[in-house]
Design brief:
One of its GO terms (molecular function) is hydrolase activity, hydrolyzing O-glycosyl compounds. One of its GO terms (biological process) is carbohydrate metabolic process. It holds the Pfam family Glyco_hydro_31_2nd. The protein is of the alpha+beta class and 671 residues long. It is 22% helix and 28% strand. The strands form five sheets. Strands 13-15-16-19-5-4-3-2-11-12-18-17-14 form a 13-stranded antiparallel beta sheet. The chain is globular.
């Protein structure tokens, strides 16, 4: 058995503190043809290296910078092979220009600077305050305060420019004025800057986007340090990013071209999911919930059984607690006969109290510290024994875990909730040599890839219900926004986070209706349910009951109305979801996606279109009234009261307790 290092709660992202910025000063053309341009570059401090500008698609240019003499480190590309695109190149004594179908970039050689000439977008180079201190980091390299090497780049921004994307951002969706670290974390709520889902894909309202190909903790300064520029810093041995042009929708399509299409969930996944919650459970209670749902006629397609289907303190063993669930197969058969699919909870951490721990430890299947000892830590905030993190780069560990997942699904389970995955410590080392600072953001992809692969094999689809992700995670189908609190503020920030995911290439997201922590009052529960049942995916879940009939008769009537509305809209939702996968555009469309040139669309960040024709404006405060921005066209109340409204216009609307916050575009088709 390997010795163990016990560690506390996982640390925040490594700080990126530039100690010695060294920007590119000059360049010369080493080669130029239809495949792109290679430049020999020199920094202000005399370092030399190579800058490559290569076409990826008709509206996308790949930019890579690597210094000479920098040793390579194990890294994984999260970008699939770009299409075979060609460019035209024009050279002059002091510049080189690349032209694609929808992009034109000029690189001035000395002093070095680049610009998108068709977008009036220029690199920010020598920008300093009166004391001479740099306020942006131009294209170049820096030694960080901890000795690591990082690359950076900066571009000027316009005063009315807006920034979106970068994953699930509870402080979004418009990120202008913020500094955002792309580091997958347990957000510990939904009102702060931490995020379960980080995607280094930045989308601008000015008609361009940037995708950084890295798994490190890339940082974006979005007119935060300097209101006239935005910067990115990447602690990697090579800077590798894609510059994309086009409308926001076109940029999202290119993101999917580069990272792969989204998975279309099975039709049944778009119906309501109901969970017994994160609390002790057993087969008798599950059967009773199922009976009550069918007796009341409440729409439900998926029953979720959370953590307590497993043995105490062994919550990643994927072994049924046979005292609480003596006949799992019989239970699955019973629920299937009532028309339910079943979802089960899981995570990739193995408790030191697990009977499987010794075997896995003996085989070296866990992440280890640099000294070679098995890393263990408190991954449950003190609520459970210390755990180790399965090393999914180890073939033996991955095969063992596949077998555990396969056996679980074989009992008749339809889908797995892939919880956690954010806890790889930066200081650990994996079997394949990758260090934790590189594996940390990649790990949720490895985890969900493995579960999706086995789910496809056993259940015939690749859907997982995941909490954390990185670039490309749209291939797993469903993400929920984690552990929010039962508050109006959390409802609003959860909505903002979902729309931020929409801007980040993830078309299908959900959240815990009613919030996870705490107990909502009936009004909050109803308004959250109305929002949740008009979200891309819908699930009732929390630490206390979220069963709709536990909040009083009036609340139950309102939630039942919303659930039946969801069911009636499913043909429309299915069509819109298929279109989202085909086009790369989200199912929940933020206002600014379709109207990037309208200031009101950027201000309307608490509403969205569900598909092309339904306007959703959830209540995010008590009282039943809110401001809604109606886009151009005529909008008709759907299953509610009031007359048509012609946009573009702001209106203060009243939404009755049992009414949906929903409007139909005149001429739209939802049946």
């Amino acid at each position: 058995m390997h010795p163990r290092d016990s560690a506390p709660w996982v640390a925040p992202p490594p700080l990126l503190i530039p100690a010695a910025p060294d920007p590119l000063a000059s360049a010369s053309v080493a080669s130029a043809d239809e495949a792109g341009v290679t430049l020999d570059v020199r920094t202000a401090a005399g370092r030399t290296g190579t800058l490559r500008l290569r076409p990826a698609t008709g509206n996308c240019l790949r930019i890579t910078l690597r210094l000479d003499g920098v040793p390579a480190a194990p890294r994984v590309s999260v970008v699939t092979a770009p299409t075979d695109t060609r460019c035209t190149v024009e050279q002059s004594p002091d510049a080189v220009t690349l032209r694609l179908e929808s992009l034109c970039l000029e690189a001035r050689l000395t002093p070095f600077a680049m610009q998108l000439t068709d977008r009036h977008l220029r690199q920010a180079t020598d920008v300093s305050d009166p004391s001479g201190r740099r306020t942006v980091l131009p294209l170049g390299v820096t030694e960080l305060a901890d000795g690591r090497l990082a690359h950076h780049d900066s571009w000027f921004t316009e005063p009315d420019e807006h920034f979106y994307g970068l994953g699930e951002r509870f402080t979004g969706p418009d990120l202008r004025g913020q500094r955002v670290d792309c580091w997958v974390e347990d957000a510990q709520g939904s009102t702060g800057t931490r995020s379960y889902k980080a995607v280094p894909f930045l989308l601008s309202s000015r008609g361009y986007a940037v995708l950084v190909d890295t798994t490190t903790a890339a940082s974006f300064d979005l007119a935060h340090s300097n209101t006239g520029a935005w910067s990115l810093t990447v602690p990697d041995e090579e800077l590798d990013y894609y510059l994309i042009t086009g409308t926001p929708a076109a940029c999202l399509r290119t993101y999917h071209d580069l990272t792969g299409p989204a998975l279309l969930p099975p039709d049944w996944a778009f119906g309501p999911w109901i969970s017994g919650g994160f609390r002790p459970d057993n087969a008798a209670e599950v059967r009773e919930r199922a009976r009550r749902i069918r007796e009341l006629g409440f729409p439900c397609d998926v029953l979720h059984i959370d953590t307590y289907w497993q043995r105490p303190s062994c919550w990643s063993d994927l072994e049924w607690d046979t005292e609480a669930f003596p006949d799992p197969r019989g239970l699955m058969t019973h629920l299937d006969g009532q028309g339910f699919r079943v979802s089960l909870w899981m995570n990739p951490y193995i408790s030191v109290d697990s009977p499987y721990f010794a075997e896995a430890d003996r085989n070296g299947w866990f992440l280890h510290s640099p000294s070679g000892t098995t890393w263990t830590g408190q991954l449950w905030g003190g609520a459970q024994p210390d755990s180790a993190v399965l090393d999914l780069t180890h073939p033996g560990a991955a095969d063992w875990f596949r077998d555990r997942v396969r056996q679980t699904l074989a009992t008749g389970v339809s889908v797995l909730k892939t919880d956690f995955g954010e806890a790889v410590p930066a200081e650990t080392v994996a079997y394949d040599g990758m260090t934790g600072d590189r594996l940390h953001n990649l790990y949720p992809l490895l985890f969900n890839d493995l579960v999706a692969e086995v789910t496809q094999e056993v259940a015939g689809h690749g859907l997982t219900w995941g909490r954390s992700t990185w670039t490309g995670g749209q291939r797993h189908g469903a993400k929920w926004t984690g552990d929010s609190n039962a508050s109006w503020q959390d409802l609003a920030s959860t909505l903002r986070a979902g729309l931020s995911l929409s801007f980040s290439g993830h078309p299908f997201w959900s959240h815990d209706i009613g919030g996870f922590h705490g107990t909502p009052d009936p009004e909050l529960f109803v308004r959250w349910a109305q929002f949740g049942l008009l979200s891309p995916l819908s699930r009732f879940h929390g630490m206390t009951s979220r069963l709709p009939w536990d909040f009083g008769e009036e609340a139950y009537t309102a939630v039942l109305h919303a659930a039946r509305l969801r069911t009636s809209l499913l043909p429309y939702v299915h069509r819109a979801a298929a279109d989202a996968v085909r086009t790369g555009e989200p199912l929940a469309r933020p206002m600014a996606l379709d109207h990037p040139d309208r200031p009101d669309a950027h201000a309307a960040d608490l509403q969205y279109l569900l598909g092309p024709d339904l306007l959703v404006a959830p209540l995010y405060a008590p009282g039943g009234r809110r401001q809604v921005w109606f886009p151009p066209g005529e909008w008709l109340p759907y299953a509610g009261s009031g007359g048509p409204i012609t946009g573009p216009a702001w209106r203060r609307v009243r939404i009755p307790f049992t009414a949906a916050p929903l409007w139909l575009r005149a001429g739209g088709h939802v049946l």
